[in-house]
Amino acid sequence: MEVLGKEKLIVRDLYKNFDGKDVLKTISFTVQEGEFLSVLGPSGCGKTTLLRILIGLEQQTSGTIFMDGEDISHLKPSERGMGIIFQNYALFPNMSVLENVEYALKLRADKKEKSREFALQTLEAIGMHDQIKKRPSQLSGGQQQRVAIARTLALNPKIILLDEPISALDVSMREVMKKELKDIQKRFNSTMIFITHEQEEAFYLSDRIMVMSEGNIEQIDTPQNIYHHPANQYIRDFVNAHLDGKLESLCKCTGKQVYGK
């Protein structure tokens, strides 16, 4: 087994072809322990395919994925040590908040005996301990997202993948959940890969952003460097078209100085 360095995740020469179309064009990148990396790009850029390959729901045509130095490229999803939060949260409607979080733990042999204890601890940590008896239909969209996050955090995954989890919320709730998601990530020191087409979400949440287009990585860098030092004309046009005039309020929230015009 090949052993690599201290990076949490290393993706090397990942390539995916669907019916003769190159969806991912031999991309490589790394993710550090405790990093929040956003994968940003328009529909059809390959970001969702990348997420599905990382979690093991799709098989790459070629390339290698390393987690903590171990090659996980051909492991089953349950063997990869990753958690995923989908856009629709995938909560069981007939279960309470506590039961939803506890259910995933009961499927894990190493956590089964203390599943209720782990579930209660995690729900308390994210401020949902007073809602444990409610069903998903009795919760707001933001509360449902917190339950989905708690269910994933309780399993203590090595990496959490997020598939546009706040895009379905209304604008005001989206702002609240961006702040809460970043706070949770910092408190738990979680390594997160966040899939989005929303630039403001990526700039607010990320330590680094990976901008994709047509199966390629156009640039992977900090939000500041992507804005101030775009790698090419695509990045320059892409960022300016969406963020000009919006960054001042964004920076007041994040403390990141990413504008200078």
Describe it for me?
- Helix 2 packs across helix 3 and helix 3 (115-125) packs across helix 4.
- The longest helix has 18 residues, at 171-188.
- Mean pLDDT is 88; it is low at 1-5 and 257-261.
- 36% of the residues lie in helices and 23% in strands.
- The protein has 2 domains: 1-81 and 158-260, Rossmann fold (3-Layer(aba) Sandwich), CATH 3.40.50; 89-157, no CATH class.
- The protein has 261 residues and is an alpha/beta fold.
- Strands 6-7-8-3-9-10 form a 6-stranded mixed beta sheet, sandwiched between helices. A 4-stranded antiparallel beta sheet has the order 2-1-4-5, with helices on one face.
Provide a compact summary of the structure.
By secondary structure, the protein is of the alpha/beta class.
Question: What is the strand and helix layout of this fold?
Answer:
Elements: E1 9-18, E2 21-31, E3 36-40, H1 47-55, E4 62-67, E5 70-71, E6 82-85, H2 97-106, H3 115-125, H4 141-154, E7 159-163, H5 171-188, E8 192-196, H6 199-205, E9 208-213, E10 216-221, H7 223-228, H8 233-243, H9 247-254
Parallel strand pairs: 3-8, 3-9, 6-7, 7-8
Antiparallel strand pairs: 1-2, 1-4, 4-5, 9-10
